[in-house]
Amino acid sequence: MSRKPMVRPGGRSARVQQSVHAAVRELETEVGRDALTVPLVAARAGVTPSTIYRRWGDLQELMSDVAVERLRPELPPEDLGGLAADLTAWAEHFLEEMSSSAGRAYIRDALLGDPDGTNAGQCSAYAAEQIETILSRAAARGEQAPAVERVVDRVVAPMMYRILFRPGTETLDAGYAARLVESLLATPGS
Amino acid sequence: MSRKPMVRPGGRSARVQQSVHAAVRELETEVGRDALTVPLVAARAGVTPSTIYRRWGDLQELMSDVAVERLRPELPPEDLGGLAADLTAWAEHFLEEMSSSAGRAYIRDALLGDPDGTNAGQCSAYAAEQIETILSRAAARGEQAPAVERVVDRVVAPMMYRILFRPGTETLDAGYAARLVESLLATPGS
DNA sequence: CCACTAACGCAAACAGTTAGCTTTTATTGG
DNA sequence: CCAATAAAAGCTAACTGTTTGCGTTAGTGG
């Protein structure tokens, strides 16, 4: 979903893509992320290495594609009946997922093999969608809600920054996420 | 400065490190980032490839080391006589440097070949140092200054998030940096 | 000044990558 | 529905980057 024109999405191409993605996920749990190679994935997927090289370019771009799939939220955020509760719960959940070693690995992979930034943009879009849902609900209730951009700047960005640039910092608990949301909602204006 | 114990920092080891780093910088301008390979760098540096593989592991970790060096600020932030002016000027400068294509490439490299997060932490520390200097000056003047952590969360993190996750977004100008600082200083409390 | 050992050079074996060509198979138009 | 077309995959061989064992060099500490 990043480099290939995908001009022929049906039939065999689709099957190959699915089997290759499946092979990556399987092998990742069996032999570990670092032991993955293109020939290994190709063998498991039942294709030749050159097929993978031609469609994805290299292992990093393939891993980036798979990582983005894994970072896609599968459920809409929970509705707890209020903006503060919804946002806090979502932020805590987001932080817990992303700051785990698995989550961090996926974020790294997504950023890594992403020359044009398409996959990174997709990750950001996922978070924005979830937030949008929460804010729309709040507006429907008549609550005064901030803009999505503000939530991203004040809640998502600080968490991501700490995950990426300050590993080992132990302040990455639910309390931190809650404080970010609280601080955001305390100043309705700018 | 990331993986090697550097138990023997003097003499030959230091010379090799310098010539390898210099070779990377030279070749980067000559043939471009994407054309760099370990054997190429080794030849330019006058060492054998195995030396690089043993000390750095792979090309990514080497590039990460070099990138961190380039991201180190060479000057302390300018003193304009006031906290708001100092922070705004610094944030604008920071954003301009980091959002350039060269800056983004260095950030990516620094994050990329960094298994334990040491280099990423170093980047974060550089920014924190600069901010610390500005805040200390403000305190010396008797101005009320926020904590470094707050500046990182409210100013640095949002800029970095947009650089990494939202490429192509056109709101990465000086005005954005200024607004972040303004918003931060508008709420002295939390 | 000598013993010790980390780090480097060298070279061969290994593994991942690239490229040319052939074959298969969606797709498109008659 | 069938033929023509071209995209995508298979195959294989050449290529290039990576790993590893061993001998040598040169800092380090006694």
TrEMBL record, chains A, B:
Task: Report the SUPFAM superfamilies cross-referenced here.
Answer: Homeodomain-like, Tetracyclin repressor-like, C-terminal domain
Q: Which domain of life is it from?
A: Bacteria
Q: Which residues bind DNA?
A: 37-56
Query: Which keywords annotate this record?
Result: DNA-binding, Transcription, Transcription regulation
Query: Where do the HTH tetR-type domain residues begin and end?
Result: 14-74
Task: Name one molecular function that GO assigns to this entry.
Answer: DNA-binding transcription factor activity
Concerning Pfam families, the annotation shows: TetR_C_11, TetR_N
Q: Does the keyword Transcription regulation apply?
A: yes
Keyword Lipoprotein found? no
Gene3D superfamilies given in the database record: Homeodomain-like, Tetracycline Repressor, domain 2
Protein name per Swiss-Prot or TrEMBL: TetR family transcriptional regulator
Q: Which organism is it from?
A: Streptomyces mashuensis
